[in-house]
């Protein structure tokens, strides 16, 4: 439904006890004064009407009802209701209050805890609430869920937080500006979900942080400034301590046989990956990236039948890649930035569930296995920065689901398979770690005497980071809610032959890097069909011919380089993207002329492309001009032949003809470019 909500529709329904207009397209303004006569009203849900402006306090409006549930998430509320909550403060029976994503501003006040004595769930997520978190004066034994995440709260978390909310089940204070140390919460015996991530919390974690929290299910302390050794608890199933400065080893976690996900990436952890981690039978996600682990990957990991995500990238691990990883659940494998040797196990390409395989920047060797095309679900394949050799197998073209292909910085030889043009390389909404949908997109239910809540955290999806080579620069690319950049990177190999024109069929390709190879032949005119291309690098090859004027149609180009080839002719300077690049994009081509290069063939240099949409008179003029030019060329040519036959021996004829042809070619080019310049001046 859409449009305004007529206030009069509620006037004649005095017995209403529930109003649910959620998930619509209502707009305009609506005042709760319309409910003035509904004395039995207990339930209001206007959630997900993002264009609707709701006014709770309207003049001297005194409601005759007492609500139990009020859900106004993703609406537009008066920002002043936090400071003077006349209506809300009068709703003493309120149990469930959800004002998330409703454009609230102002300082946080504890009136919701003090006045709303029956409140069980408070959700003020994703607003602009400032100030310090204020506790109630007395313990609140009926508060089960508090979500103040994604605001601008500052100050520290009160040390007696656990005492004030002893029966809390879920606490989310993530993505604020909280600082100081994390207090002990050991007396919150019912706590199942704790998220303090993305703040400025510092120091070591208290020894008794969660000793008494026997029901803790999810613990998220990511992206703070916490330090010291990893804590020796808990029985949590999902543990996220990434983006801190923790030190020490993983041994303290191995004793926990219940966790499903462990993420400690980007810390200062060291030592080896303990063999006992293979005993954590239900482990689905293990992220150890960006630490200082060394040694081999223990073969005990092969016992993890539910493993979906394994990321050990950017450590100092060595040895061979494990051949025995379970194949039934694997989604993402990342080994990049280590010192692994040997070959890529061919078994990886038989894992039907695998979406991401990233082994970039190791010391792997051998050929690409022919099994590489046996499976169809692979979307990210990154094998760059190794010592792989041989040709690119045509079986690779069978993987129609690929979005990123990186074979750069290897020793691959042979040609680029023309069947690449039959692949899709479509852009795709970001790849989520699918295990999060199974386990931790956080659809958690809380049951207590007389009530049942389902608490959903829609922003808990993991982000996948890959490194893309853009004009020689390694750029970490974070895949979250943005579009996945479809990419082909074959740079820094020993590839030969022509660039297949069929690559121009990949009209959703965003990045193409074929630089630093031994490719020959022309730049395909079909590249003009790469309508979404943003980065095109074919530099440092042996390409010849001219730069096709059709490339001026690539309006999204932000990175472009044809430097250090054997290109000739004029750089197309028709208004378009090619005119925006500097000298570095064209340098190293002896026969290339025109701006931005200083080198020109004549003082009157100009473009080689005559625009297609010319008027008829210009077409006729050009036809006459080139007809006369061609006739002059023919007359001069045959005159030269007659002269040579009369005055020169046969052995000199060829060299003289070559010189004459070169002379005439230069004259024709000069005449054509002068005429083009004159026509532009007339326009």
Automatic annotation (TrEMBL):
Bilayer-crossing regions: 623-646
UniProt cross-references to Pfam families, sorted A to Z: LRR_1 (PF00560), LRR_8 (PF13855)
Primary location class: membrane
GO cellular component: plasma membrane
InterPro entries reported in the protein's UniProt record: Leu-rich_rpt, Leu-rich_rpt_typical-subtyp, LRR_dom_sf, RLP_Defense_Trigger
Annotated compartments: Cell membrane
SMART domains: LRR_TYP
Signal peptide coordinates: none
Keyword Cell membrane tagged: yes
Assigned keywords, A-Z: Cell membrane, Glycoprotein, Leucine-rich repeat, Membrane, Repeat, Signal, Transmembrane, Transmembrane helix
Coiled coil: none
Topology class, membrane: Single-pass membrane protein
Similarity comment: family membership: Belongs to the RLP family.
Name of the protein this chain belongs to: Receptor-like protein 1
Gene name per UniProt: LOC103699328
């Amino acid at each position: 439904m859409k449009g305004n909500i007529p206030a009069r529709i509620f006037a004649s329904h005095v017995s209403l006890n529930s109003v649910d207009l959620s998930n619509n397209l209502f707009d305009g303004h609506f005042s709760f004064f319309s409910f003035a006569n509904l004395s039995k009203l207990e339930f209001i849900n206007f959630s997900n009407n993002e264009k609707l402006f709701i006014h709770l306090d309207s003049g001297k409006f005194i409601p005759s009802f007492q609500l139990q549930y009020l859900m106004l998430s993703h609406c537009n509320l008066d920002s002043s209701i936090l400071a003077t909550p006349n209506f809300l403060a009068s709703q003493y029976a309120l149990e469930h209050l959800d004002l998330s994503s409703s454009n609230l501003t102002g300082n946080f006040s504890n009136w919701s805890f003090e006045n709303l004595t029956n409140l069980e769930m408070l959700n003020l997520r994703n607003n602009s609430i400032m100030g310090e978190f204020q506790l109630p004066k007395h313990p609140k034994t009926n508060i089960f869920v508090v979500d103040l995440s994604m605001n601008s709260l500052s100050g520290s978390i009160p040390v007696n937080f656990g005492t004030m909310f002893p029966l809390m089940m879920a606490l989310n204070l993530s993505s604020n500006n909280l600082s100081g140390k994390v207090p002990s919460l050991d007396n919150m015996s019912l706590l199942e979900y704790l998220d303090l991530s993305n703040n400025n919390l510092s120091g070591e974690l208290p020894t008794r942080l969660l000793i008494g929290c026997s029901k803790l299910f999810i613990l998220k302390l990511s992206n703070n400034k916490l330090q010291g050794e990893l804590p020796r608890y808990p029985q949590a199933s999902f543990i996220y301590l990434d983006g801190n400065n923790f030190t020490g080893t993983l041994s303290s976690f191995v004793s926990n046989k219940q966790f499903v996900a462990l993420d400690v990436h980007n810390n200062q952890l060291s030592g080896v990956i303990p063999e006992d981690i293979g005993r954590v039978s239900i482990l689905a996600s293990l992220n150890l990236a960006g630490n200082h682990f060394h040694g081999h990957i223990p073969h005990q990991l092969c016992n993890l039948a539910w493993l979906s995500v394994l990321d050990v990238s950017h450590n100092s691990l060595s040895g061979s890649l494990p051949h025995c990883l379970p194949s039934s659940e694997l989604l993402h494998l990342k080994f990049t930035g280590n010192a692994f040797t040997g070959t890529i196990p061919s078994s990886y390409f038989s894992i039907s569930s695998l979406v991401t395989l990233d082994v970039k920047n190791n010391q792997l060797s051998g050929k690409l296995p022919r099994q590489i095309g046996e499976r169809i679900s692979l979307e990210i394949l990154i094998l760059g920065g190794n010592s792989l050799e041989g040709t690119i197998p045509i079986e690779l073209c069978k993987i129609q689901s690929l979005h990123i292909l990186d074979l750069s910085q290897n020793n691959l030889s042979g040609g680029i398979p023309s069947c690449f043009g039959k692949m899709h390389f479509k852009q795709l909404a970001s790849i989520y770690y699918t295990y999060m949908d199974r386990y931790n997109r956080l659809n958690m239910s809380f049951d207590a005497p007389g009530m049942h809540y389902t608490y959903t955290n829609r922003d808990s999806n993991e982000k996948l980071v890959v490194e893309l080579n853009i004009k020689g620069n390694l750029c970490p690319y974070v895949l979250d809610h943005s579009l996945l950049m479809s990419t082909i990177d074959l740079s820094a190999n020993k590839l030969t032959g022509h660039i297949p024109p069929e690559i121009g069929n990949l009209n959703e390709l965003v990045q193409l890097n074929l630089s630093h190879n031994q490719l020959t032949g022309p730049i395909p005119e079909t590249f003009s069909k790469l309508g979404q291309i943003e980065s095109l690098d074919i530099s440092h090859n042996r390409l010849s011919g001219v730069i096709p004027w059709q490339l001026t149609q690539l309006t999204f180009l932000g990175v472009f380089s044809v430097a250090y080839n054997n290109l000739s002719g004029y750089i197309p300077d028709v208004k378009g993207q090619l005119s925006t690049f500097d000298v570095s994009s064209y340098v190293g081509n002896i026969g290339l002329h025109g701006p931005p290069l200083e080198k020109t063939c004549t003082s009157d240099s100009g473009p080689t492309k005559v625009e297609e949409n010319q008027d008829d008179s210009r077409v006729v003029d050009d036809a006459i001009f080139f007809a006369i030019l061609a006739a002059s060329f023919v007359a001069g040519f045959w005159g030269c032949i007659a002269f040579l036959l009369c005055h020169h021996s046969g052995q000199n004829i060829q060299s003289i003809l070559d010189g004459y042809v070169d002379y005439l070619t230069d004259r024709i080019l000069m005449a054509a470019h002068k005429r083009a310049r004159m026509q532009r001046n007339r326009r």
